[in-house]
């Protein structure tokens, strides 16, 4: 259950509806998901986060599927059920297969384990791994 009242599409204040309309247009969708409806309880937060999402998730040097898979990896590590579901759906829509998802989770699990080992042992970083800045 949400901690605040969700703002519904079509019944939102003007500034919120403008963001909702942009979300639908950008995503070529006819609905607003619960994440945005909850954030709409704070119009400034809604506008800021949507602006950040549009910028970061836009086409760039990293392809859209890889961005979604990175989002899944972080969401799994942070245990965000909502983001795991929403970004897995988005990644599948962009071509992620069940085999890719399984391999992604294997990498996430391995990285979390080895990160904890490296942190626990306080392993010094090899000089060769540190970038030489000119």
TrEMBL record:
It holds the Pfam family CMD. InterPro entries: AhpD-like, AhpD_core, CMD-like. Residues 47-122 form the Carboxymuconolactone decarboxylase-like domain. This is Carboxymuconolactone decarboxylase family protein.
């Amino acid at each position: 259950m949400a901690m605040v009242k969700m703002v519904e599409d079509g019944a939102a204040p003007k500034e919120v509806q403008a963001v909702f309309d942009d979300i639908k247009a950008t995503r070529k969708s006819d609905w607003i998901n619960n994440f945005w409806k909850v954030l709409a309880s704070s119009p400034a937060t809604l506008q800021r986060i949507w602006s950040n999402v549009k910028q970061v998730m836009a086409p760039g040097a990293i392809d859209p599927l890889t961005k979604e898979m990175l989002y899944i990896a972080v969401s799994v590590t942070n245990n965000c059920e909502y983001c795991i579901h929403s970004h897995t759906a988005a990644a599948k829509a962009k071509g992620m297969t069940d085999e890719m998802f399984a391999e992604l989770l294997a990498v996430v699990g391995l990285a979390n384990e080895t990160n904890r080992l490296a942190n626990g042992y306080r392993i010094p970083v090899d000089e060769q791994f540190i970038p030489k800045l000119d």
